[in-house]
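Q: Sequence in, structure out?
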Amino acid sequence: MSSVETAVALPAEGTQDAPWHHLDRRMLLIRPVLDLVKSLPVLLGALLFGHGEPWQWIGLAFTAIAVFTGVSHVLTSRYRITESQVEWHTGLLLRKQRAIPRDRIRTVDVTSEPKHRLFSLAAARIGTGRHNHGKGPNKDELVLDAVTVAEAQRLRTLLLHRKAVPASSASSEATAEEPAAPPEQLVAAVDKRWLRYAPFTLSGLAVVGAAVGTVYHFAHELHFDPVQFSLVRTVVGHFADTPTWVSLVLAAAGLLVLVSVLSVGGYILSFWNFRLTREPAGTLHIRRGLITTRSVSIEEDRLRGVEVREPLPLRLAGGARCVAIAGGLREGKGADKGGGLLLPPAPVARVHEVVASVLGEDPAATPLTRHPRRALYRRLTRAVIGVLVLAAALYGLSWLGALPDWPWQVALVLLPFAVLVGWDRYRGLGHALTGRYLVTRSGSLDRGTAVVQCDGLTGIVVERSFFQRRAGLVTLIVPVAAGKGHYKVLDVGEVDGLDLADRAAPGLLAPFLER
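A: Exactly. Output:
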């Protein structure tokens, strides 16, 4: 059988003499172990509960097929770089071929996980900037999951700096004919003093929540009661004999300490040895990580702006983080997950220095135009109505006997906090048009200031809901082929919003405007 997956046509004549390279064979010592670990639930089920049952052999066969597939992938995968494209072939029974034009390559993401670092290997992810939003494998991306670190860096330099294809066929040794990595200019490096911002990122809260959810799930499935442990029984008894408010204070303090410790640990693991450098070829190079190291390159020609993120706890501590708005970056849950993090949580002043160094100016520090007071009323109304609806729903459940009285009373206590959040959301609204950049800011709990090149805009969308029309407000949506895909100027005055859109994209809205 043969399956061909190509992003473009097959290589043209005259490029067939480029040498083929194979994945590093040392991956054969790791891949079978990883496949066995992934198949461990099936394997244990077959061995422990499948004595004399036919499905025991099905479980064993499934594990053997998984290990065989992994080994064959390492043995049969090969790639080469011609003058026009990158080709990749793999497969024994099911053969796959893929090719990507070199002029479409936008990123080479080099990641070295613990399984790679054991043998000084890395995974090179070659991307074109197109995303499939998680719908199956990305056919515009090649992943070379077992190359040496030197080979991964050679590929990054070769593909991003548009050098000629090297004549050498050795993939693990650099020669005089291969392109040398250009010298780099340091833009930013992590400072140990920035660890004080880690607890304010609340990243440890997600770890605690995931751990509690996992333990509860397994305990529920196994019909296991954790109170059976003497230690747990002692702690529960202590809290039962303590006044409620004291128990809540102690629990909150313990949770705060645990979240802070986990957040500091996560900061160290993620941003250890963080370095942002600029190469003479016009590329920003980002390296970070302690156990899993990651190296990402961003062509400055693909840079469409930056976004300064200021979550409420981090903002109160005087910190922020900076994310690139660039085409070709893999998007994850959060822009920093996709590799475009230009600076981890750090002092706001340092963030603006990095923005100025990357863009040549700092539009994010420009004074912003405030939005009309009608935008304030919309935010206060939304915040108050949300709390009142929640309180009414809880009161209804209490009236039906499904809940006690205190939940809806607690919801009403949140009303002043909702008003404060609504007021802060209005204070955060703002926009500006400075030079060639459009600046927009919004949010309270997770405030973001986006700086987008006007030349990078692919259009302008003017959106007005029923209530916005009554209030004389509009929301401008500026699509851009990078970052989140679009950014919004929320609840700006109708006249000011249309004028801003016309200045950001001159002539685009002219047929629809009345002067």
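The chain has a mean pLDDT of 81.
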